[in-house]
Queue: 3 jobs
Job 1
Amino acid sequence: MDRGIPIFKNGVPGWAIKIILFSLILPTLVLFFLPFANINAAAGYYGSEPADIQFAVALFYAGYIAFYSLERRFFNFLAAKEYFIIFTMLELLTTLVCYLTNDLYILFPIRFFQGMLFSSTVNLSLSLMFTRLHSERAREISFSVFFGMLICILPFTNLVTADLIDSYNFNLVYKGALFSYLPCLCLIMLCMNNVRLNARFHLYKLDWQSFVFWSIMLTLLGYISIYGQEYYWLDDARIYYSVAAMIVSTLIYIVRQRGLKRPYLHLGIFRFRNFKFAAFLIFVLYICRFAVNITNSFFTGVLKLDPIHVGYINSCNLGGLIVGIIISGAMILQKKNIRFIWFPGFILLLAFHVIMFFLFATEANENNFYAPLFMQGIGVGMIMVPTIVYAISAVPVAIGPSATSICSTMGYVGFCVSAAIINFCELYEKSRHYNAFQDHLTKVDRFALHTLATRGTELLSKGLSLKQAGKGANKQLVGAVNQQIQIRFAMDYYEMMSMMLVATLLLIALFPYLNRTAVYLRSRRLVPA
């Protein structure tokens, strides 16, 4: 990409260009994990289950990853201004549909299409944003900014939308996104020149077949992971045939890629040992990253915090992410040993899970959770970008885009596996602890009788009748048991995550090839995703 190309008109300052591009990216970023901002409110608005809301996020994620390799053809075909206008108009249209509908069968395909548009808009925006930077640093900074923004989406969305969702209907956020696109679109039309960043490459022989098979594989993976436990896995025909279809699509896709002169994704990247290890670390990182949802469930289900206060608490996590990204970006530019970046990051993640294990209780001061969430943010921020840079550095420059796509895919797989593990463990662990409590809480148990009598007396003193007080005491006891079950499940899950992180740290310490790859990007391509 030539820095001499007059992409923006003369007289437009650099700071204004960056603000315009960031403002254009922001609504699209918020749409990514928007359903997770308040999953119960979203489920209530669409008349669905929480699993359906999880699947809506997975579809957006799948669309983003599936379209990545095909998006470069459109990037080379259209001029930058045309590209922005077309895809922004499509984003406006899809956001308008999301605002007007509450039908899941309309929402699901729209979410997948929004993921495709997310890939296009973000790639071009960040490509333009860093054309003014020094070429040696622009690649690392562009990757740090994009993937840093990606991991900051969830706490940022919770923070900026909590008040709106709590006060109005869930779809009001889509209305806000609609209006936020319009000023940036007008500024783009006024400030940009109609120039090309690359030579025009016509859209003949588009490998849409690989895109279709890749999309089927990713979508079915999300469907199986999210709905598998609810439908009893392979005992249900829907999951059984979904697994069969995914396996068939995978085999066809692999055979097709081996026979193509220009494959959709170069499968040869899996011959590089360092790349495989980095992809594994991304997988582990995303499993740990989305375990923070259990902490949010603890805040709302046990401590009874409203979504607004949960968003405020998670702002500490957002601050930690930003700090971690800055630290890791500086260490990448200084070409530090990768072990010096990974070890502190994973140790902070381990410390977060261990501390939270001891903080889970029926009563707690919310101030105690600020430091652990800040530590978790720093850990994730320090690991994410260096790992992706390390993975891309481990393969030849020609197949670097495939390495980036696979890294994003491993993040998606980690997201799906995390959802599957949480759903499975939640059912199994809660059932196990419920049965354990049931063995003790009987009508002849002294502790249960004493608790019922105490709670009944308290309700009687507040003016309830004897019958109402008895029913109220039983209900309070059941609620207390459910809280204990949720706490025990969270402790068991975080204990399992801690053991996985210890094993990961041992692998990092013992892996003999870590220092054979320089942690810098050799490709001059500035597209970060």
Job 2
Amino acid sequence: MTAPTLPGLEPAPTPVAPRPGSRAARMALPRSIDVLKDIAIEYGVCVRPLAMRRTDLDTGLTEVIDLPCGATREDKCPPCAKKNRRLRQAQIREGWHRNDEPLPGPEPATEAQKSLVLFRAHLEFSRDEALRAAQWDQVTDLDEAIREVEEAITAEGLRGRVGPPHASDDEGQDDEPGPRRKRSTKRRQDAPELPRRKVERRTVGKTYIAPDGSTYQPSMWLTLTLDSYGPVRPDGTPVNPARYDYRRAAWDAVHFPRLLDQFWQNLRRCEGWNVQYAGCVEPQRRLAPHAHFVIRGTIPRDVLRTVAAATYHQVWWPSVDVQRYTLDRLPIWDEQAAAWVDPDTREPLTTWTEALDIIDDDPDAEPVHVVRFGSQVDARGVMPGTEDAERTIRYVTKYITKHTGDCHKATTDRQRKHLDRLWQQLQLTPCTDRCANWLLYGIQPKKAHAKLKPGRCKGKVHQRDTLGIGGRRILISRDWSGKTLADHKHDARAWVRALLGVTTDGTQLVDNQGDTTERIRHAWELARPDDPDVGPMTHRLMRSISERARWRSELLAAKDRAAQESLDLSATQHSAQHDGEETQ
């Protein structure tokens, strides 16, 4: 006797294969274009290349060459984003555990450079005399001569300017008339004091000596987070959304880059040497930004926590406590007055200069917002050449190929509502002194014009994908590796060419100063997709895939040959050493 099946617990029906030739059977087949793109991604070929027309200036030969798009996001081009991530990892790896200074000092000036600077000084003296004597025609001639000498100084190979340019009556005027605004540099009473030392011109950390006499030079990994805005659940959503401080979260996210800059400035002054860092800004699960950094050298953890607790950034902007206007009732632009006015009274709104004057005239004025770090500061030492170092580099660059809003996908309604509330607050938060959102608070932003749309500012911090992180997400100090990202790309190409035994012979010329320069042989221009010599995208992708497959085969064969040569050399050296021992 078969037991009866309870209602609702019937076994799932066995899936039936679609009828051959039916639409369901056809839709189950993979698309050839999707397979082509998957193979392109597998071989590292850009899936949306730029067609560039290259013309040989000697022969006149023209050909179309596909160049990678160079995207840094996976949703645009996975191969280019992956390549960018590997390049950033190589940059971090090269500068993290250095034991020498990456940038040598400048070379001594030549006699020609010194003569030009001396001549510039004579012109400055003559201009000052003509200015005192009110000889305005000579002042104009001397200004022209100074500009020519400045150009000659730059062409001679000197960096920067000898002195700031002289502003004429119609040039160099500041946006705000009157003296420059200055804020007090006195530290806040609620922030601990920090020792201040003279910063040495070194970027290498301390070297330690082990009991056995060996030396080692570890480095560090650091994570900085913002303060809490209310209790959150494990999924990052607030326990009580009504009490969660979304306004402070939005303001902290907008001004987080300034807080990081202040932290490194305070840390260098506290430690007394030029601390170097490389890291990435990412959102936490609660959608607040935090930063991961690798630091060259070691710093006591207590010092890092003390500096983080004492670091803050004050935002001296007009008050935003009261929102005078809503998105349904906005100020209007008055063409005659060239200003934004109240829709009811037609009175002009407070200008940006007037709003700042009110702050300057108030001796008890407080900043509109103060950004601080939270109590959570994670730091640990990392030894060079270990798996922990490689794992840390992968962790720091984990999300650099994704949009900020895509780092943590919202999978539940509670997470989506939390994201919506934060985004709505970011839409009303002013991002700069020229942001259109100042009109919501009855203030005309700096350089106001009629095209401003409150609540629709095009700044990156207001977009849903950025979550308030509108600046650069990759933060690397200037003296990290002594190279730019273009230099690291060149090093990678040079390594591949050396492994394959490929040499490039470039035609060089000699300029007037005797320096060798590479001769420009080709002219480049962007080709249009509808040009006759630009083939279909699929054909170009297939050619690139075939070329990349052959390159990969040659590269793997070259690696195998290099490994075999290394083994043969080691065997030869071992045999020679063994023969020497037998002879003795």
Job 3
Amino acid sequence: MSVPNRHFLTAISSRRCSRPLAGVLGIWLAFAAQACVAFGFEDVVKKAEKISEQGYQSPGANLPESLSNLEYSDYAKIHTKDGHALWGDEDLPFNLAFFHEGMHYDTPVKIHTVVDGEVEDISFNPDDFAYGDLDIPDEDLENLGFAGFKVTNALNDADRMNEIMAFQGASYFRTLGRDQTYGASGRGLAIDTALPSGEEFPAFREFWVVKPSKDSQYLTVFALLDSPSLSGAYRFVLRPGEDTVVDVTSQLFMRNAVEKLGVAPLTSMYLYGPGQPTDSLNYRPAIHDSNGLLVHDGGKQAEGSEEDWVWRPLANPDKLMVDEQDVDSLKGFGLLQRSHDFHDYEDLNDRYDRRPSVWVEPQGDWGKGQIELIQIPTPDETNDNIVTLWKPDEAPQAGDELDFSYRMYWTTHEAKFHSPDLSWADQTRRSQGEVRKDNLVRETDGSLAFIVDFKGPGLESLEDGATMEVAADVGDNGELVESRVVSNDAEGGWRMLLRVKRSDGSKPLDIRAFLKDGDERLSETWYYRLPANG
């Protein structure tokens, strides 16, 4: 019987374990030696440390014009042939398929598997790919490599392997839970994002994927990161499910000092939504992969601060907006898609209602730092214009060794990541401010109105006779015209209504508000940054 994925496995590395010795003791020692030196995370750490001591060598692009000039629609025609996925004929819970080089994916990455502790190399073979109706000369397919890989698993259908994770481009990766579609992305690391000096993009240059057993519930991937300023070792442990979980371990070795180190960065897309309606006529009420940033600061919580849980509705500004939130002890942050109701999007093709939220929980104490939110103007939904990341208070210097571990959740069940004691902003809507005249006619008054619906346990536990209030602040570039809260008799919870006037339209307006009963805080802090000229 032929083995369809035979092309991928081309070489087995020399054994790293000592040869068997004579006698029982020798056999035991040989087994122990083999067990001790099976390939693992520490091997990647050693490799990262070694190359950090060397000068950075940029990998060269190797694409002919027939592949580098492809448009996206043509590049999408290239895929691993049916039946050619690695491990596809072995009845394993995970298979691997590979991304072909092409378009701007012009630098190959090395991919290996780890089988019984030993490294096996995987080589590119064009016979494993289908090219559709593309006419790529045979000679242009020589000496190419992989642009990345994807992991498949029978998550949604026991009889079909579905893509659940992908690594492609720089240090980007995406993951899916059950019945989700790709939206926000994770990145291994970000350096100097949104600085005038320009961003540096670290890239995963080499991967090792541990071959699973037939009953494995998880998949382990090791990765080597490299860039002019640093090198690093990564371990990803993928656990698919209704909410897919990825445990990330990283160890970094600094070649140079950097001004901004972005840890656990996330990227997403926000074009428009009820919080920032579109000026164009469009049947879709919203187009976004995420609609807000949620930050949980355990240090602020310990102090009884009003800023321990902060929700930041996203915006598509006219010009770049970068701002920070100080964090004493980060417990979690993420880009969330708080609505999964199809009628909030009405898009049968892109199914924004199935885009997952991504929540990051640090493992261990990362110390003091800032959560940075970067919002970039975009004219359409093809650009990831939202970036968020954690950066340490002290910028790393040359020679520093850093390690960060965290858990990532890809979920459509956001309530489990909200405060158990506070209610949350379920939706934000923006409108012209208006007043109702004595003749019942509504007239605009030059203000902007924000309508925020709060739901959750902080409101459900209210006792009879509670006095609900709004605590609001608009900073020094605006005037708070009105703030009030009313019971949402239609859907439960409470509705906060704010009317504000901005003093200088060329500058952003920062609006913060939360609900309270006397001195008792009942909701997370809703923090909206109205873009300049927006």
